[in-house]
Design brief:
- The structure is a single chain.
- This protein is an alpha+beta fold.
- Helix content is 29%, strand content 37%.
- Strand 2 (34-43) and strand 3 (46-53) form a beta hairpin.
- The longest helix is centred in the middle third of the chain and has 11 residues, at 19-29.
Length: 65
Amino acid sequence: MAATPLEMVTTELENRPGTGAELFRKLADAGVNLRAAVPTGMGGDKVQIALAAEDAAGLRAALGQ
């Protein structure tokens, strides 16, 4: 199996229960098909996560970036 390069888009969430579910529901409702989700950092009350999707531009648009 060959590796597939993916463009990662980072976002930041509040570190509280349910924020991940809210984010993934928002992306699903926007028709974004995620390929990867990787937590990349944490500081204070925030969590950074890197996401990859089949359509990186659609992912950025759904995230408001």
